[in-house]
Amino acid sequence: TEEEEKKDEL
Amino acid sequence: MNIFRFAGDMTHLISIVVLLLKIYATKSCSGISLKTQELYVIVFLARYLDLFTDFISVYNTVMKLVFIGSSLAIVWCMRMHRAVKRTYDKELDTFRHYFLVLGSFVLALLLHEKFTFQEIFWAFSIYLEAVAILPQLVMLQRSGNVDNLTGQYVFFLGAYRAFYILNWIYRFFTEPHFSRWIACLSGLVQTAFYADFFYYYFISWKNNAKLQLPA
Membrane-spanning residues where (chain B) (predicted)? Predict the structure, then answer.
């Protein structure tokens, strides 16, 4: 499964 | 993190410092929309729910806490500080911001990445941030004359948005799977709201004159 994209922006 | 994203975060931080400086140094919040400030508190609290679940970096965590803390401090000053709250131009700040909150929440229920508590609130915060500046812009337009620090505050907020767009363009071309249409489209809408203000800001800057918005 694709790794979830973390919300790295503010 | 690329240079545009960092510049965006820094101009965002500067805008907050400018606003705090104005309030503390002049003991006045004239020209500042309490409604916009309250919307920012909601935006930050809704978006940074992930403080409890995800750790990205020390930088991210510190910035999130600074944004939550500073927005709360500004609202507290405008509502509770005896000298400051007297200077609030309540009669100019009449935008019905509850509709923005309601509309953003309904939109988040319809358009989101996943139907989970955190994702709904994240999308809600993105939509609400896009429109949160509107009460402030309407207030500026109504008062016509914009004092220096208030003008700088809105200028830096707009610069923050512009840098974030450059950051997305950069990421789009440098990262293989960069797709976040919710944040990017909302960001474009949000930045468009500043276009008019920027136009008059640069005219006043070019003519070395006080910033004035047409009625």
Answer: 56-77, 98-115, 121-141, 153-173, 179-202
Over residues B94-123, the pLDDT tens digits come to 999 999 999 999 999 999 999 999 999 999
Mutate which of B54, B67, B184 to disrupt the A interface (most A C-beta within 10 Å)?
B54
Boundaries of domain holding B56: 3-206
Best mutation target, B6, B56, B179, to test chain A (most A CBs within 10 A)? B56
User: In total, how many domains does chain B have?
Assistant: 1
Burial of B89 (0-12, 13-18, 19+ CB in 10 A): middle
Residue A7 with chain B: CB contacts under 8 Å: 50, 54, 56, 122
ipTM score assigned to the predicted complex = 0.84
In chain A, which residues have their Cβ closer than 8 Å to the Cβ of B167?
Answer: 9
